[in-house]
Amino acid sequence: MKNRKITLEEKEIPEKWYNIVADMPNKPLPPLHPGTKEPIGPDALAPLFPEELIKQEVSQEKWIDIPDEVRNIYSIWRPTPLYRAYGLEKALDTPAKIYYKYEGTSPSGSHKPNTAVPQAYYNKKEGIKRITTETGAGQWGSALAFACNHFDMECEVYMVRLSYDHKPYRKVMMNTWGAKVFPSPSNATGAGRKILEKYPDTTGSLGIAISEAVERAATNADTKYALGSVLNHVKLHQTIIGQEAVAQMQKAGDMPDIVIAPFGGGSNFAGLAFPFLRLNLAEGRKIRCIASEPTSCPKLTRGVFRYDFGDTVGMTPLLPMYTLGHNFVPAPIHAGGLRYHGAGVIVSQLLRDKLIEALAHDNVEVFKAGVLFARTEGIIPAPEAAHGIATAIAEAKKCKEEGVSRTILFNLCGHGNFDMKAYEDYFDGKIMQHELSSEEIDASLAQLDTPEIN
Amino acid sequence: MKNRKITLEEKEIPEKWYNIVADMPNKPLPPLHPGTKEPIGPDALAPLFPEELIKQEVSQEKWIDIPDEVRNIYSIWRPTPLYRAYGLEKALDTPAKIYYKYEGTSPSGSHKPNTAVPQAYYNKKEGIKRITTETGAGQWGSALAFACNHFDMECEVYMVRLSYDHKPYRKVMMNTWGAKVFPSPSNATGAGRKILEKYPDTTGSLGIAISEAVERAATNADTKYALGSVLNHVKLHQTIIGQEAVAQMQKAGDMPDIVIAPFGGGSNFAGLAFPFLRLNLAEGRKIRCIASEPTSCPKLTRGVFRYDFGDTVGMTPLLPMYTLGHNFVPAPIHAGGLRYHGAGVIVSQLLRDKLIEALAHDNVEVFKAGVLFARTEGIIPAPEAAHGIATAIAEAKKCKEEGVSRTILFNLCGHGNFDMKAYEDYFDGKIMQHELSSEEIDASLAQLDTPEIN
Description:
The structure is a homodimer.
Chain A: E1 5-6, E2 16-18, H1 51-58, E3 63-65, H2 68-74, E4 82-84, H3 86-92, E5 97-102, H4 113-125, E6 130-135, H5 139-150, E7 154-160, H6 161-166, H7 168-176, E8 180-184, H8 190-198, H9 206-218, E9 223-225, H10 232-251, E10 258-262, H11 267-283, E11 288-294, H12 299-302, E12 304-309, E13 318-323, H13 345-352, E14 357-361, H14 363-377, H15 383-402, E15 407-412, H16 420-427, H17 438-446
Parallel strand pairs in A: 5-15, 6-7, 6-9, 7-8, 10-11, 10-15, 11-14
Antiparallel strand pairs in A: 1-4, 2-3, 4-5, 12-13
């Protein structure tokens, strides 16, 4: 019998997160004040985040200790298994060796609790009673609900009304872990009330939900706000994935030539890829790290590198990022976690320095890859995860064409148990291609009046 | 950091299933022909099942080899982890040590693939092209779809129309693994057409769905039928759970005083409990094994031991079982997997011989236990699994009252990702108590004219 899974023991859960900033040849540019456009310091984040997370956000230290309390909760589902994809390899008839790290074993079903747990922990430690956040499809909201519940904290989730009405099961999941879920816009905040007054029938947006969650945190001393991707400390926490994967690849007596992960705000990709990039930066290895994005939201492959806002309204600091423009509205693809206009700061700098690569996949190709994976490997992937599979398949096919064997590793970041509607749409022929024209991208970028970067 | 999970390596997946019949002091009574009421032999099963499974159904051998091809697919999710429930223990403030075996890591989310995979394998080996089955909520149907897909076999699932319409996501899951799913009654069978003609608007029943699946198998030489519980070979396959658990408890340096599992047809309970009962039967240990059933379907705690049909219509052989009568219609509780009128033959004999125990829990108590578990351990359990949790909590509370520490192990047989509607109903106060009156049970049993057992 061939060995399919490479597992680690609970005691092998890493004890430190890896901060890639320490190893970057070009450090990220500073964030700018949205009004003055002058560089801002960490204190600007103090109303929203606890001190320890702000420290991590700007840290230059290479290794940051993971508290025992956090590792203890990680141990509910970590270390996660790493698989050799024998079934997929056979179906592709490829000389490539394909591995995947499976993050869907967490209680909420994705990699998101890797950062939700430490975020809740540091807030609790600093006396915070309540954490607010926004959520679209609900993957991040349920991870934070799970984490807050473990530290006996209140969790308030502002869920885009469209999702609240159409995807009730994620909401119930959050309730089961004790979180309060509001359809956004809600009557619980000034921002929400103002919008409801003007547009009583609105289905909401992620931008509005962020405004509500941020308002609650900014106006209550015992309340802070949490974000599920983009920021440096979020990427930092996710490096637990890649560190385990490095150990597991070593245990398998192998090492990837290519590392692949889906790309939304960057934490999924950072989580798997940064510990392998460390081997490139510190040991001179040449592992290709590829971010997988949807063709309907191609900020890495077709966006520009300049300062832009993190939100639609333009309230956040200006960040140096690959962006399609903060007013860009991606098509309503099922991979909701990848529908974000910009890329996190660190990943953007790495792409600019050509230390990583990016590849975009069409929605139809992505679901085809997801179904092939389910039928050959058994696990039904989330649509976000299926983007990574599509890239892995593309690279494995290249190996076949070129007649070379390469070792490919990708992040299977979550299962599709809450995404069955997406698969139903695929089988019903309702999944459409979403190729953006250059005119559409140019039109969005033309609206930007944020500082350019030379 | 306390050790929470006890894991095994892939190579530690057991190599044999355990057949408790070999160790039983009183062997099960023979099945009877539904018409003649005379004992029947294994050949009566030949139209429906492959030879190897029929052999296992009547085997007296203590150990039966697990084929490498089956172990290879098991390795997608096996060995499953065994957890120490520190969070639940703390919440209950009990001196008891509580462990649980978690079977929700399988791709379909429950223990069902443990038998679906070998059933598909043996059918494939004997040249069968297609397997048919019935499914209610869809847990068993999706396990079989997953298994057939791995052996490149067709899978036809007759899904009760009410579930087909109201629980579309399980159906999509089965489609994703390539299965054909028919709302039952369907036009694909004579039985279905006959019922549709008479009752075009019927929402179907499990009894009708069984008739359709059986008809397809009985009338097509390349087609067989598969069952997800009750039968001896199904229980046999599930013993992989308990064998792993015995090894894991030994690794933890502990051994349970009490072993608990939810009870529908018996395979869930058999899976965890039989390898511990072996220690009782072969080594003189005194581990209490408790089956958890709903008060709305209490065949073990309030049924009678006599011959009865396995199906509602009365087409199957007569089996010696604890039963509420084959016409008994349980309340529509969310734990669909536990809504069965009878108990499997082996488990019934063991209960009659007082080698195992049974406990019934009310629906409201069960959901309260499920939510407490989700909030203290992190994993949201399936309603079926929450029955086992309720029993574990009851026993842990007894330990507290009596001031003694006992070691409790239960089977967390599946996650609740597809059961969020049930939790929503619970939070909305829509889950009702279902206590049956003695009159209701007597009325159902009074209809029985099947052979009694002295």
